[in-house]
Specification:
The chain has helices at residues 3-14, 61-69, 81-84, 93-100, 120-130, 135-140, 185-188, 199-205, 214-220, 234-240, 255-266, 288-297, 303-311, and strands spanning 24-27, 41-44, 49-52, 58-60, 109-111, 144-146, 154-161, 164-172, 207-211, 224-226, 245-248, 273-275. By secondary structure, the chain is an alpha/beta fold. It folds into three domains: 3-79, no CATH class; 89-190, DNA primase DNAg catalytic core, N-terminal domain (Alpha-Beta Complex), CATH 3.90.980; 199-311, 3-Layer(aba) Sandwich (Dna Topoisomerase Vi A Subunit, Chain: A, domain 2). The strands form three sheets. Strands 1-2-3-4 form a four-stranded antiparallel sheet. Strands 5-6-7-8 form a four-stranded antiparallel sheet. The longest helix has 12 residues, at 3-14. It is elongated.
Length: 313
């Protein structure tokens, strides 16, 4: 394959993150044992071989793609990232589509639950997620990742309402870039402020613990719901009004935002409103058992409590 064609293949898969010269192409090494963040994996386009100058991982381009995608790909044919997505983990297109469950998920979405053979990138994604939740949570919340495309190197967390995927969070787990890349409204038909993550489960329990992000909600448990930020919209308030018990547990540095949310529910006549705050950090930084203790010990919040906090005793 001509050098320019090889460059096209690699650029469509990995993106050109670092300046390249002549026959060279450089990316961050994705070997799980490496942890490279400065573009040490160098591909020689002329010879068709690669080498990581940090960990020594090396081989030919065919091996590089096999390790990254999870299946051998014939690099003598030019393929785009979109075309390569069907090779991930050896699935056929119908199986991948069935796993997605909804067209709103990226076409490059790969599930992380079940007993699957994972590529190097998939293993990095799984290890990242397991640092924040259990295997049971991964399957329960249908967590996956993208190794290609617009959401490349991002954990994908579907937001399900009324049994259907309405939105998803895309969190970077490898490389550099914006930490979250929220889908555009025209892509899903709704914006982040119109969705409440895990609301179906909270409705069934008649209790919702409001947090900022999906990882926080998963750490809280089955009654954890995410607002996709520190603020709540009229749409989200309306969806949560039918739930009897509302607990507000934003990050430790968001007290005023928590008070604003509590006020919104109090003025709607909600009586069982509770205000919680982690001693430091985010809810996802704490063990679930500790969070449940806070919830059990929480006391009902009132307008008088709000005034006392805002203006002092």
């Amino acid at each position: 394959m001509h050098e320019d064609r090889r460059r096209q293949v690699l650029a469509s898969i990995f993106g050109e993150e670092y300046e390249v010269r002549a026959e060279q192409f450089r990316i961050n090494c994705f070997n799980p044992t490496c942890g490279d963040t400065t573009g040490n994996l160098e591909v020689n386009l002329e010879k068709g071989i690669f080498h990581c100058w940090r960990c020594g991982y090396s081989g030919n381009i065919r091996q590089l793609l096999k390790d990254y995608i999870g299946k051998a790909v014939d690099i003598d044919e030019y393929v785009t990232a979109e075309e390569l997505s069907k090779f991930q983990l050896g699935y056929d297109e119908e199986e991948i589509e069935q796993e997605k469950g909804h067209v709103n998920l990226p076409k490059e979405f790969v599930p992380l639950w079940g007993d699957r053979k994972l590529s190097f990138t998939g293993k990095r994604a799984l290890n990242y997620v397991l640092g924040r939740m259990s295997k049971e949570d991964i399957e329960k919340y249908r967590i996956g990742y993208c190794g290609l495309g617009y959401y490349k190197w991002r954990i994908i967390i579907p937001a399900i309402e009324d049994g259907e995927i309405k939105y998803f969070a895309a969190r970077l787990f490898l490389g550099q870039g914006e930490r979250y890349r929220n889908p555009k409204k025209e892509e899903c038909g709704v914006g982040a402020n119109e969705v409440v993550f895990n609301i179906d489960s909270a409705r069934s329990l008649n209790r919702a613990i409001l947090v900022e992000g999906c990882f926080d909600a998963i750490r809280v448990g089955s009654d954890g719901v995410a607002l996709f930020g520190k603020h709540i919209s009229d749409n989200q308030v309306f969806k949560l009004l039918s739930i009897e018990n509302i607990y507000i547990m934003l990050d430790q540095d968001a007290l005023l935002d928590s008070l604003d949310i509590a006020h919104r529910f109090l003025e709607k006549g909600k009586k069982n409103v509770y205000l919680l705050s982690p001693p430091h950090g985010d809810p996802s930084d704490w063990p679930r058992a500790e969070i449940r203790k806070w919830i059990t010990a929480a006391k009902r919040f009132s307008f008088e409590d709000e005034l006392r906090i805002r203006f002092g005793d």
